[in-house]
Amino acid sequence: MKTSTKKRLIKFSLILGILMVILGLVAWYKFFREEPEQTFDDANEQFKYGSVGGEADAGIPYWIWLVLPRIFPEHMPRAGGYKAFGLVWEEGQELPVGFTKRTIGFPRVGNNCALCHVGTYRSKLDETPTVVIGAPGHSFRVQEMLRFLVAAANDPRFTASTLLEEIQKETELSYLDKVLYRFVIIPRTKAALIEQGKKLDWMNDNPEWGPGRDDAFNLPKYALANMTVDGSAGACDFNSVWNMKARTGSNKYLNWCGESPSLRSVVIDSALGVGAQPDSEFSDHAKRIEDFMNNLAPPPYPFEINQPLATRGGALYSEHCARCHEPGQALTNTVISLDEIQTDPERERAWSQFAADTFNEVVDDMGFKGREPVIKQTGYLSSPLDGIWMRAPYLHNGSVPNLRELLKIPENRVSKFYRGFDVYDSQDVGFVCKGPDAKREGWLHDTKTRGDGNQGHSYGSELSEDQKSALIEFLKTL
Amino acid sequence: MTLNQRSLSAKCPEELDALFRDSALGAAPDGEGTGAAMLCPGTWHGRFLTFLIRVFIWQGKVVNRSEGTLKNRVSPFGFRDIKANVVEGPSRLDGKPCYILDYSKTSLIARAVRDEVREIAPGLYLGLVFIRKWRVGYFSLRYNYEAPPRLARRVMAATLAAILVITVYLLVRINRDQAVGYESAEDHFKYGSTGGERKSGIPLAIWHLLPKMFPEYLPGEGLRSLGFLYENGKDLPIGVSQRNVRGIETVFLNCAVCHVGTVRLAPDQPRQVVLGMPANALDLEKFERFLFACATDERFTGERIMAELERQGIEEDFINRLLLRYVGVSLMRDRLLMLRQRFLSFLDREPEAGPGRVDTFNSPKVLMNFPMKDLPEREWVGNCDLTSIWLQRPRRGMQLHWDGNNTRTEERNRSAAFGTGAFPTTLDRDAMNRIVAWLEDAEPPRFPQESPLVSFDKALAKRGQPLYMQYCSRCHGNTGRDFSGELVGMVTPIQEIGTDPHRLDSYTAILAANQNSLYAGYPDERFRHFRKTFGYANQPLDGIWLRAPYLHNGSVPTLRDLMEPASRRPESFFRGYDVFDSKRVGFVSSVQREGDREFFSFDTKLKGNGNQGHEGPEYGTELSSRDKDAIVEYMKTF
């Protein structure tokens, strides 16, 4: 090759190279550039709004997320934007609790632990709800929210034109951004949501989850491990996540059927659900969250307690409940066999050793470190009763609305009631579960539905009414 | 037929080959020649391809005869590159001599290319293109410039220039965004634009046409009959602003439409226009319904609207007539029908608002497209009075809106701007800031104590002061300018105040949560202070004489009536009349009609219209009649 030809070739490749670098930089800037995540000095704020690293993989583009309820009201179960899904939304906050906003190329919305583990209560209907960190998100209807997003994505009106028109009422997009949203971000989001929807198809053959519940172990089986759908219905309550240090240690287990042997496992497996990736950031997130939950104090009962009555109840608690529920006792945090506890077996059936093995393999392959494998146990976990007043409704499937009902023999317990309403019933200790307001804001739990049975755990039903009142009074103090 | 590049391009390959064979070698090319590539000679798309190649890829060859080399003019910019050697040699076509353009030793990209050229006419060369051994096409190269006929050139140049001018003009026109501006703050408040026309505007021509074309949907003559106020010499009413958007003069509402009212001291007295006062006569709901009715009328089509414009002699220029006929009118109809479907979803299930009132907080719900059918009945009725907006500076930090749901005047303003059609992306911030700045210290006019037309008893007012201080000042401030008082601007719980709860209930925590995302594209402006409250806010009483009827829902016609317990307040009365009742302080509420304007019969028994509450010993409703008179007399000084 002649030198002049060579020179020209070099010139040519140089220009081409520079062009490609510029193009690459633009692409990186617009799609992958990670702005530092927002951190909060206050640990509570960090828990409510801090990232756990799920935005890159599971994040929805913020502007799309924002306008969807405005474009698809027909897919909304009721009026009120995302708040209609029973999310906790603190005054003045841009996003509901459990939502994070982070720019990775473009602003995205992700979720964190607080999505399902922050709850509210009110003493009466017309009152600003009090937010309780670490409490079960008992009014949050995750299934409805998932269904809404999937239905919107599958709607033929989910088009770049429709979305961009609405987005541009809220923000000005540059020409480049408009092009990227139109040809990349919006179509990709639609496709990803439709894909997610297919992975959730099995939900539609199962009973409704309702507020405050999800099918915690079928979700990883099908959505992550791609296992064959087996028809089991494992809807169960979100848990409280405070005082975790009283729940972990050797021979102590977590999750309703004692699947998880360590807090780290629970954190990893739950974070997977919001798209967290096994990167260097994640172990920091996990560590922070664990520390937070280990030391988070259960919320004190906010209403009046009759102390003398509670003291009398304390004796009954020691006699009837402590063996399984008092931290430090032999059976606390262990799995009580189905034969013994006799509560609804569906949730327990949804998990198997095979599922555990398959799931462990998948998570290990992803590269998460420090995770003890999940296991299969037969029965339900006996957990400490700290902050039990804020953990209604009761039993793993939330089939008993309040403590007074729980102390009845199972046949006499209420068979239909509303859950998801956050006005507190300090008489019976639980949330108000009947009446027009509970009906309007809540969801009807029918104990005849598969998986939603209220049988079992008949301990204490033999006590007298006075004794029950005393015991309930004592339970308020935990 | 003369041979030139144009005639060559019309020949088919066989003819070109024959031409090449029949031509001698000719003189060697030299200098800059204009090229025309012919990949599919003899076809129309071949010509187009030739044109595209000329513009984007290859413009010709520059031959250096002495060196025996050439370079091509390539890329849209005509860079000289891709070198070839020029040698004489036998043609592959017929073995006879031709000029061979050999790229094999000089060019990397074109190394497989070999061109053969002969001069087929003076200064005109025909070339064959080979890649390796395959023939891929022809080209021509000309050195003698053929000037097109002069006339054709002129026409072409003129056409090009005209196209350029028109394009630039259209671009400028389509990007126009020019509001009609006003010097004085008062005129800007009355007629200035908040930016609403940019997306929500109504073409000015159609604004003028609608009352003429659809008079049957109006209660009387023109928009005046809905309570719009026209000042002398103006063809747009107060509260309607004008802006040129994309070349079309458009109009929409501004703040003044709801916050400018009128008062007369007697039926035969001149009407005084008061800026910042509640628009006591404006029936906003009827205006909305008028627009909706027009949009649903079968005559609301581009063709018929344009025909009617012409008939009425309303002028628009040619381009806008085209735009309106084929796009504008149907866009406007679609938009109105969309708004109709959304707004009627709540307007139709609550009592009519009537003049001077509006359902404030069901509107943001429909703007965010809540499925209104799913709303609990408790939220359905949100009618309340339009408010006065004077003296905003001393109101800062107070709980604003009737239920005190926001403590920031800036957010309250931006929230209200939605009502003027201004979205986060269309709000005219400079214009808005001007209005806001003016409202900071704008004051209501004083009660005309000196006028012989009003009743005012100075001594009685003096006697009323201590009573006012005892019963009212804690919640409503010491005077009409001194807003101090421990509960001023704070919310009194509904159980205590006992007034009609509907307006309070129409605002919900769910709506507040959703409002948090408004203006999210402008982080400094995002709404952060909307709160659900559980009562009504205590307001300062500046210009209270012009703020009748009273209570948040305007259910009590006069101050003197408000001093009575609910059981003795008028059960029904007329609203919308602007003649002042200086004795009882409020507008005359017993007059049913004036001229062609019929006033609104307000029924306190309807939902949201209840006149109860704000009564009992603490509220002074159990004082003696004389004491009540005194308090009312004192409030005339505000």
Labels describing this entry:
heterodimer; A: 478 residues; mainly alpha; 3-stranded antiparallel sheet; two-stranded antiparallel sheet; 19 helices; 13 strands; B: 638 residues; alpha+beta; 4-stranded antiparallel sheet; 18% strand
| Spatial arrangement of strands, main beta sheet of chain A | 1-3-2
Helix content of chain A: 40-55%
User: Which structural class best describes the helix and strand composition of chain A?
Assistant: mainly alpha
Uncertain runs of chain A with pLDDT below 50, 5 residues or more?
none
Strand order of the largest sheet of chain B: 1-2-3-4-5-6-7-8
Mean pLDDT of chain B: 92
Shape of chain B: elongated
Distance between termini of chain A? Answer: 87 Å
Largest interface: chains, residues each: A-B, 35 and 40 residues
User: What is the typical, i.e. mean, pLDDT of chain A?
Assistant: 92
Rg for CA atoms of chain B: 39 Å
The overall strand count of chain A is 13
Multimeric organization: heterodimer
> What is the SS-derived class of chain B?
alpha+beta
Residue runs with pLDDT of under 50 for 5 or more positions of chain B: none
- Indicate the percent of residues in helices of chain B: 25-40%
**What best-fitting shape of chain A do the alpha-carbon axes yield?**
elongated
Describe the structure.
The complex is a heterodimer of chains A (478) and B (638). By secondary structure, chain A is mainly alpha-helical. Chain A is built from 19 helices and 13 strands. The longest helix of chain A is centred in the N-terminal third of the chain and has 30 residues, at 3-32. With 638 residues, chain B is of the alpha+beta class. In chain B, 33% of the residues lie in helices and 18% in strands. Chain B is built from 21 helices and 24 strands. The relative contact order of chain B is 0.08. The chains are: A mainly alpha (478), B alpha+beta (638). The interface between A and B is large, with 35 and 40 residues.
